[in-house]
Write a structure and sequence with these properties.
This protein folds into 2 domains: 16-196, Growth Hormone, Chain: A; 216-414, MFS general substrate transporter like domains (Growth Hormone, Chain: A). 82% of the residues lie in helices and 0% in strands. It contains 16 helices and no strands. The longest helix has 31 residues, at 19-49.
């Protein structure tokens, strides 16, 4: 019996026939969908029911800050324990949180803002534990040759879930109550949390799980040291920081300003442009899944960053909604084209015992710079710099950084 199981574990199944990958994909979709629905529900309740728009930022800061802190901790936890247990615990904790919050919405005429802030922090903390475990689990579920395609499917599913979550939540709130929608989210998370325990990992990985006996502090420091001492991982870390800093604020925060001020568009026009960016990321995920790039992924990432910079410069010069939509789809595809090869490269090149920590550090570094990018963008706009000029100038560091990284880190040119 044991020999039969061992032979079955060595067979590389197509992703569509791998029950473990399908379960991982399902839990990822449910977690992303519930996050986007939860954020929409809280934001809409604060603005529409409490009429406290100025306090919405506090709720969002609680969610994002706790998610960042938890992600660093979650990377160490993911490498110390079994990832399926951590993911299951995270989903089931969120399910309990949603059901508890639904009771408060049902019995209280007005849910206080501090309760929403606390719930947002707890939601962010659970989400921060889920993601590093998912990233560390994927290489144990699929083969190295399938990583790019698997990541493209996961990232595409996440983008679709984050895009459709607010629409679904808005419809459900319109026809039902906040309490009932939260109950539905909680039940979905319960199913997801139970399903994740059915995911099977290969026996060679299973035997290596949980062998670390160092203290939490030592393993956290080891993760930092390992990431920075590896030329490839250090280069990937720097790339992630550069891309997120120069794109998040000028482009993502600047989109509504650009559409309203430069294109003279309406809210409907903004929805077209914003939705087109998400559509581009979805199309990019599908395309990368079909191509399944396995060679020179570092070079591809650099090329795509250069094209991103060029695309953002061209976008800053347009004066037509239609042209803006076409270009932003292209930029969205390139965004996925950068992220997926980098994630796959980390998962295939990093020590499997440290993947959770490495991925959590890279994700935390990128997430941590997003608020800073927003702040710098706001400051420059306050100084009177036009958004189209800011976008154009922000594209230059992307182009320059590609050349610098290309020569400073030659390993990127050959890394598969």
């Amino acid at each position: 019996m044991n020999n039969t199981k061992r032979l079955e574990s060595e067979v590389v199944l197509p992703l569509t026939k791998s029950r473990s990958f399908i379960l991982l994909l399902m839990t990822t979709v449910v977690s992303s969908l519930s996050l986007s629905m939860f954020m929409f529900i809280q934001s809409w309740y604060v603005v529409e029911s409490l009429d406290k728009e100025a306090l919405l930022g506090i709720v969002l800061v609680c969610l994002t800050s706790m998610r960042m802190i938890s992600m660093v901790i979650g990377g160490v936890v993911a490498d110390r324990g079994r990832q399926t247990r951590i993911m299951g615990f995270a989903d089931l904790s969120l399910a309990f949180l949603m059901l508890l919050l639904s009771v408060l919405f049902h019995y209280l005429s007005e849910v206080p803002i501090w309760i929403l802030a606390v719930n947002a922090g707890l939601f962010g903390a659970s989400g921060g534990m889920f993601e590093p475990s998912r990233d560390a689990l994927l290489p144990k579920v699929v083969s190295v040759a399938q990583l790019t395609r698997a990541n493209s499917l996961l990232q595409g599913a996440i983008k679709i879930a984050m895009f459709s979550g607010p629409f679904l939540a808005g419809i459900l709130i319109h026809i039902a109550s906040y309490s009932l929608v939260l109950v539905l989210i909680g039940l979905c998370l319960c199913i997801s949390g139970c399903s994740v325990f059915l995911i099977k990992v290969r026996e060679d990985n299973l035997n290596n799980e949980g062998k670390g006996r160092d203290t939490f502090k030592v393993q956290l420091a080891e993760g930092f040291s390992y990431t920075w001492k590896s030329p490839l991982l250090r280069a990937l870390f720097i790339i992630t920081i550069i891309v997120n800093f120069f794109i998040s604020g000028p482009l993502m925060m600047g989109l509504p300003i650009f559409v309203e001020g430069v294109l003279q568009g309406t809210s409907v026009d903004f929805s077209y442009v914003q939705g087109s960016f998400t559509l581009g990321m979805i199309l990019g995920s599908v395309l990368l899944g079909l191509l399944n790039i396995q060679r020179k992924r570092g070079s591809y990432a650099l090329y795509f960053i250069a094209l991103q910079g060029a695309g953002m410069f061209i976008f800053s010069q347009v004066h037509s909604i239609l042209t803006a939509v076409v270009i932003i789809v292209f930029i969205g595809m390139l965004t996925t084209g950068v992220n997926i090869p980098l994630i796959s490269l980390v998962q295939s090149s990093a020590n499997q015992a440290k993947v959770g920590r490495v991925m959590s550090l890279i994700r935390t570094g990128s997430l941590g710079l997003i608020p800073l990018s927003y702040a710098v963008t706001s400051m420059l706009l306050g100084m009177g710099i036009k958004i189209q000029h800011l976008m154009a100038w922000s594209s230059l560091p992307l182009l320059v950084s590609v050349g610098v990284l290309y020569f400073l880190y030659p390993i990127l040119r050959t890394a598969d």
